[in-house]
Design a protein that fits this description.
- It is a single chain.
- The protein is an alpha+beta fold.
- The chain has a domain of 267 residues: Alpha/Beta hydrolase fold, catalytic domain (Rossmann fold), CATH 3.40.50.1820.
- It contains twelve helices and 37 strands.
- The strands form eight sheets. It has a nine-stranded mixed beta sheet, with helices on both faces.
- A hairpin with a 4-residue loop joins strand 11 and strand 12.
- The longest helix has 19 residues.
- 52% of the residues are buried.
């Protein structure tokens, strides 16, 4: 069961900063300082995957300092060879062709998100550009276990708003039009690579689902969801025989359940559910597509097996591996899996699980340089918002700061509130490079699933509708108040930091609640919600009405006022705490203008701000050289604000494209580091 449908996901500071000496550290962590490059540099290896026939093992690892794809015989991983030779942009995703002869990957240019699909022949090393169209983005629509020579892809080269469906012959690289798309948000194909289902967005922010037969869409929808269910109801795909369609579905309930629907009669039955959180993941038989287990992530992911054999395998893995377990690939005969274990306080490791021999073989550790390091535990906590909503959150304390082992520091610590992007996404339990880095510098780190976050039912998402900078922000303030009452921090020692919506939350924190935070770090955050909605990528057309209904409708007077009032740009004059901004010049989601305009507004009021711009990045920093450079500045900035430890700049800017258009003088050591570069 392999299918792809469209889902609405992530879209997304007159006081002198140097007037006072940095406050003394609130704590003296016993753990040695860990170099930031060990957190934000290239992993040694990641994304281990077995080929469908089990003959090969692939992974992503550096080649000449850039992440590339490597392959080795599964029987002897020491005989690895680099299969690609990217020189600048790291490869971040890869997958095997159904016949196991080719590895496929996507990449963009400088963060523009116009992803191109490439294929590399494993035997010859020949690389081919499979979607060479300019200013075009590729989506994978469907792959099959028994049709080995082609896949279905979506391309928006004809109309940037909509993805036409093509059959791609992998050996020849030939594209054949299957469906000309005039307004459908996404599709589901079956194992015969026939389109079976099409989704179309509605003016109310909901979605209609239509049957597709012979590449023609039926006139009447077979089902529909309104706005409330639109982020919690999606088809997953068909079983191999095409008789059953699986859904993640919240219709008639709050949390999304795993539903099986009879494709002929339309009858449905509940396969798996939880009252606490949505079903978020599945394990399906590679041959039949029948779901064998499902995962629910409330505080942590818990798996429920539907197949006793799979249940026994998961139990075995739990006894052998200490940490949360993720099955990342399965061979077609299901004889071997790759399994990743995440212990949180140690770097993740990838294993080969031979089901016939019932043996585990350790393949690699993704960041071996962190083995033996004093990494910090993560504590899931439940925080009550002022109106009674429960906010699932994650707290990390510096190693050694929690002498009693109860998730509370021995004395209050400076704290960084680290806000996730989206906002229709979530924080979860597991190793987090930002949490570990900040904790190592002496900070408590708190991440909050504020209302609007996904995974906790549709009512929790709906509670965030039209609440940007309002109740969504109140949740963050309530979480800080909780941390103060718990003795985790003090009210004057809290910074706010995040990317995308988290960057917006940072700007909102320093404008709408200017006394709540000691400083803020905004990474690719929008400052004006009206201009944000005007400049979203054209291929987000299908989700536009959802944005309007959940943020504010710019086509109405009331909506425009709502967006204006929730935009930090128009409160920039109220900023009185230090602010650091990071931006990618090619960001298609949150354009550079979003950062430019608030920096301009602050300069006009003589409010200091440090603005860092990367000309070769988009929505976030894909190149590790740029992540290291930005975080080198961020830890100096936070050290001056909160008093935590900071590694000297050193060679942090080596290989980075960092520019600082404004305010280098307001972050300690930044001017000197730039001059040295």
């Amino acid at each position: 069961m392999r299918a792809a449908v469209l889902a609405l996901t992530v879209i997304l500071g007159t006081t002198s900063l140097t007037a006072a000496a940095p406050p003394p550290p609130a704590t003296s962590p016993a753990a040695p300082l860990i170099e930031r490059a060990k957190f934000f540099g290239n992993p040694s290896r990641t994304q281990g995957k077995l080929s469908p026939d089990g003959k090969w093992l692939s992974w992503i690892a550096p080649r000449d300092g850039v992440l590339n794809i490597w392959v080795a015989p599964a029987s002897d991983p020491t005989k690895a060879k680099a299969l690609t030779a990217e020189k600048t942009r790291p490869i971040r995703q890869h997958f095997w062709s159904p016949d196991g002869k080719m590895i496929l990957f996507v990449n963009d240019k400088g963060g523009d998100e116009n992803f191109v699909l490439y294929g590399v022949n494993v035997a010859t090393g020949e690389q081919r550009t499979l979607t060479p169209q300019e200013k075009t983005r590729v989506d994978i629509i469907g792959t099959s276990h028994h049709i080995k020579d082609r896949i279905l892809v979506g391309l928006n080269n004809r109309d940037p708003k909509w993805f036409d469906v093509y059959s791609l012959d992998l050996a020849k690289g030939k594209l054949t039009l299957v469906f000309k798309n005039e307004g459908y948000a996404g599709f589901v194909a079956d194992e015969s690579l026939k389109l079976r289902l099409a989704a179309k967005s509605r003016p109310d922010g909901g979605t209609d689902f239509f049957r597709v037969a012979d590449n023609k869409v039926e006139a009447q929808p077979l089902g529909a969801v309104g706005l409330d269910d639109s982020l919690t109801t999606n088809p997953l795909g068909y079983t191999e025989d095409g008789k059953t369609l699986y859904w993640i579905d919240s219709r008639g309930r709050d949390t999304a359940a795993l539903i099986a629907q009879d494709a002929a009669t339309g009858a449905t039955r509940v396969v798996g559910q939880s009252d606490k959180a949505d079903v978020g993941d599945i394990l399906a038989d590679p041959k039949t597509g029948v779901v064998q287990a499902y995962g629910v992530d409330y505080l942590r992911t818990e798996w429920t097996a539907l197949d006793p054999k799979i249940g026994a395998e998961l139990d075995f893995l739990k006894t052998q591996l200490k940490g949360d377990i993720h099955v990342t690939s399965r061979t077609d005969d299901d004889g071997a899996w790759t399994v990743v274990v995440d212990p949180v306080t140690a770097p993740a490791a990838t294993y080969r699980f031979d089901r016939k021999a019932h043996t585990l073989t350790k393949l690699f550790v993704n960041r071996p340089e962190l083995e033996g390091a004093d990494l910090a535990a993560m504590h899931p906590v439940e925080i009550k918002a002022r109106d009674g909503l429960t906010l699932v959150s994650y707290l990390t304390l510096p190693a050694g700061a929690d002498g009693k082992g109860d998730g509370h520091p021995d004395q209050p610590l400076p704290m960084v509130l680290f806000v996730h992007g989206g906002p229709w996404a979530r924080d979860g339990y597991g190793y987090n490079g930002y949490h570990q880095w900040l904790a190592n510098r002496g900070y408590a780190v708190l991440s909050v699933n504020y209302r609007g976050s996904t995974g906790f039912g549709k009512n929790f998402i709906t509670a965030g509708n039209l609440q940007w900078g309002r109740k969504m922000h109140d949740d963050l303030i309530d979480a800080v108040d909780w941390a103060v009452k718990q003795g985790i921090t003090t009210k004057d020692k809290v910074a706010i930091m995040g990317g995308s919506y988290g960057g917006y939350a940072t700007l909102a924190g320093l404008t709408f609640t200017p006394d709540a935070f000691a400083c803020g770090v905004d990474i690719v955050g929008p400052s004006n919600l009206a201009t944000l909605l005007k400049t979203i990528p054209p291929y987000w057309e299908a989700g536009k009405q959802q944005f309007y209904k959940r943020m504010g409708d710019p086509t109405t007077e009331d909506g425009r006022q709502l967006l204006h009032d929730a935009s930090p740009l128009f409160k920039a004059a109220d900023i009185k705490k230090p602010l650091l901004i990071g931006q990618g010049a090619n960001d298609p989601r949150v354009n550079q203008a979003e950062s430019d305009q608030i920096v301009k507004a602050m300069k006009e009021k003589n409010i200091p701000v440090t603005y860092i711009l990367f000309p070769d990045e988009g929505h976030g920093f894909a190149r590790p050289e740029n992540s290291i450079a930005f975080n080198a500045a961020a830890e100096q900035f936070l050290g001056a604000c909160l008093g935590g430890r900071a590694e000297p700049f050193g060679a942090a800017f080596k290989g980075s494209s960092i520019t600082v258009p404004d305010g280098a003088q307001f972050t300690p050591g930044l001017q000197a580091a730039l001059a040295a570069k």
